[in-house]
Amino acid sequence: KQSQMRSEAYRRAVASLPCAHCGIEGYSQHAHENEGKGKAQKLDDRRAMPLCCDRPGVEGCHTRYDQYRLLPGGREAHRAQGRVWAAQTRQQVEKSGQWPRNLPRWQKEERDGR
User: Fold this and answer.
1) 32-37 — which CB contacts under 8 Å span 24+ positions?
2) Strands, E, within 6-65: which ranges?
3) For burial by CB atoms within 10 Å, which of 55, 58, 61, 101 has the most?
């Protein structure tokens, strides 16, 4: 099993982006994909996207995503979309110049699960 990379700088870069689902700015959190997670276990920080948080009177996309209520199609739809959003997020972070120097780039083999 590969080690899961952790990077506070990457998490902050992701959280600085607009919500991947609704596009709202200023409320994003670093949200891990919902694949292979277990109790108190998180995926590699590079497998994440910005999703907005709960705020007064509004349930955020992050909560709805984690509870498989953001998209039609249940768990599989959420997992598939999470992979897409995480890949787009990695591209956004890299293109914006925010990729942390000490964090290895995402490799094709890792992305494909090899």
Assistant:
1) 33/79, 33/82, 33/83, 33/86, 34/65, 34/66, 34/68, 34/75, 34/78, 34/79, 34/82, 35/79, 35/82, 35/83
2) 28-32, 48-52
3) 61
